[in-house]
Amino acid sequence: MIDNRITKSNLFLIELIIVIMFFAFASTITLQVFFKANEKSADSTALNGALMVTQAAAEKAKSITYTDLNKIAETEYFDENWNPSNVENAKYTLNTKIKTETKNSGIMVTLTYKAKSSTETIYELKSKKYFPNEERQIL
Predict the structure, then answer these.
(1) 31-32-38 Cα angle (round to 5)
(2) What's the chain's average pLDDT?
(3) Residue 26: its pLDDT value, please?
(4) Average pLDDT, stretch 113-118?
(5) For 85, which of 72, 74, 79, 118 could close a Cys bridge (C-beta 3.0–4.6 Å)?
(6) End-to-end CA distance of the chain
(7) Does the model's pTM come out above 0.70?
(8) How far is residue 17 from each of residues 6, 14, 22, 24, 25, measured CA to CA in Å?
């Protein structure tokens, strides 16, 4: 009789250990899923902010004159909420590169906007603007 009780208690402890291991394994998987979801959410927020900033810069460039091109070639700095910031508090940057190509009737300007975090390029946008010769001569 005594051997039978020990066997039943051993069986109960084995079942308890198996259940605890199952829940530990399930919680580990659940935490990994939540961590990845949080990471994707942060990436999505950064991409959305980068998209808005680069589109706004491209829209501003539509109204710029040829003589003012050098004003948009500056690096702009943004904080974690994509608000304009100084260099010290910046988490993101927007770099604008200007490439000019002379044509017979004017100049084609290619503007490349790159929104970057400290480690990677988040979003890149290219736009072109044409400046006819008549417009350059007026200025």
Answers:
(1) 90
(2) 88
(3) 96
(4) 93
(5) 79
(6) 107
(7) yes
(8) 16, 5, 9, 10, 12
